[in-house]
Amino acid sequence: MMKKINLNVNDKHYAIEVDIKESLLDVLRDRLHLTGVKQGCSVGECGACTVLIDGTPYNSCIYLAMWADGKKITTIEGIEKDGQLSKVQQAFVDEGAIQCGYCTPGLVMTTTALVESGKKYSDEEIKREISGHFCRCTGYQKIFNAVKKSLDE
Amino acid sequence: MFSINHILEPKTLKEAILYYDENPKLKVIAGGTDVLIHLHHGKLEDVELLSLRKINHLDEVKLQEDGTIVIGAMTTFSTLFRDKIINQYISILAEASVSMGGPQIRNIATIGGNICNGAVSADSAPSLFTLNAILRLESKKGVRMIPIQDFYEGPGKVKLLQGEILTHILITEDNYHEMKGKYIKFSNRKAMDIAMLSVAVTGQVEDEVFKDLRIALGVSAPVPVRCSKAEDYAVGKECSEETIKKIGELALSNARPRNSWRGSKPYRQHLINVLTQRAIKEIVFKGGGKDDEKN
């Protein structure tokens, strides 16, 4: 069964037909070709597919595409401005928080939501807020440093 | 691609109940963090979904004039964790909420889904058991109120009658007024993990005597359980190290833990004893009791 939805992705408006069987991840990657959104575990554990929906991080693999009707979606492709990396992206580069890069888009999105919340986070709270992301390379310390740096300035 | 044949998205509860009455085969979906995963793994196939996501006001926490806290079944764990009413009056539920999954899961997973899923490890269950939560179930036949202690039937099984939808969770004032609570989730990882064992304690300490004490365990039996023997023993007793030790031992009498890859039976028994004592000491401390009880 197909369903017509209207959604805003990275400040661009789309009116598309989606299958009710499709996840938001499927639509973002295969229909809109936003392959910065990574498919990892497909069951909401690894966080690689995290995108912002109305500013809040969700796992797009377990979010039905049709639920995105009327929502504003932000992916990793949508946070650079005029070819300039966002503050969060730059912090991940500066801190060497990237190795294979597979978990990076998701982590950058969650960190972006933390920065945009305008709240202050203790070290423990930072760890809690990024705990929905698995990284199998860096051992998390550099990621933690990058998140802290993003929130510091 | 999920094996979904059809999805209904009613905008009102009334509409949802009518749909469910007409077609009892519908699978109710709330946050989807269990249903979509079952679909992904092929445990569910060719489903017709009844989504509750478009129904307004089912995701709110309210404090009624009579002091009853009413939690909409579609309230997410993130909302519960941050909610003012929850944090002020039943902070144990905020503690339990933030222990569940990770942030992205908490942003969408609902308390109603957690309860109706019937998992023995459900993070919301032990706290709600100690708060004597009442579940409001609605079907075309009318409304049924049932204590959460009577709702769980077995692993993954709850006593929802045909066509019934869980709409709200109610906690009356006498079950939280002057009470302190503590939830301890024991798991291998601090996040994104399922409890190996969990303990919730809600109680009231007055003049260093247990005026009221409720203990509930998760992953200790086929359903979450209350430790009635330990509770009966505790009430009226001085909250001394010795009493707390005895309560910990008695907590085992209502438990039937099993061996699983997550933890062995003897280890779980040990955890029940130790964590029950630890949680009690925490509420004694929160309740202004002896300082040395903390250690």
Instruction: Please name the CATH architecture of the largest domain in chain A.
Output: Roll
Largest inter-chain contact set: A-B, 30 and 25 residues
Order of helices and strands of chain B: EHEHEEEHHHHHHEEEEEEEEEHHH
Strand content of chain B: 15-25%
Measured as a percent range, the helix fraction of chain B is 25-40%
Q: Look at the helices and sheets of chain A and give the structural class.
A: alpha+beta
**Separation, N- and C-terminal Cα atoms of chain B:** 52 Å
Output the structural class of chain B.
Answer: alpha+beta
Strand order of the largest sheet of chain B: 4-5-10-6-7
Q: Gyration radius of chain B, to the nearest Å?
A: 19 Å
Major sheet size, sense and barrel closure of chain B: 5 strands, antiparallel
Element pattern of chain A in H and E: EEHEEEHHHH
Head-to-tail CA distance between termini of chain A = 48 Å
Low-pLDDT sequence parts of chain B: none
**How many strands of chain A?**
5
**Proportion of strand residues of chain A:** 15-25%
What share of the residues of chain A lie within helices? 25-40%
Short note summarizing the structure:
The complex is a heterodimer of chains A (153) and B (295). By secondary structure, chain A is of the alpha+beta class.
Description:
The complex is a heterodimer of chains A (153) and B (295). Helix content of chain A is 32%, strand content 18%. Chain A has helices spanning 24-31, 87-94, 104-117, 123-129, 141-152; strands at residues 2-9, 12-19, 50-53, 56-59, 72-74. The longest helix of chain A is centred in the last third of the chain and has 14 residues, at 104-117. The mean pLDDT of chain A is 97. Chain B is α+β, with helices and mostly antiparallel strands. Chain B has 3 domains: 4-49, no CATH class; 61-175, Uridine Diphospho-n-acetylenolpyruvylglucosamine Reductase, domain 3 (2-Layer Sandwich), CATH 3.30.465.10; 180-289, CO dehydrogenase flavoprotein, C-terminal domain (Enolase-like, domain 1), CATH 3.30.390.50. Chain B is built from 11 helices and 14 strands. Chain B has helices at 13-22, 35-40, 77-82, 84-89, 91-98, 103-106, 111-116, 125-130, 228-234, 241-251, 265-286; strands at residues 4-8, 27-29, 47-51, 61-63, 69-72, 134-139, 142-147, 152-154, 157-158, 165-171, 180-186, 197-206, 209-218, 225-226. In chain B, helix 9 (228-234) runs antiparallel to helix 10 and helix 10 runs antiparallel to helix 11 (265-286). The longest helix of chain B is centred in the last third of the chain and has 22 residues, at 265-286. Chain B is globular. The termini of chain B are far apart.
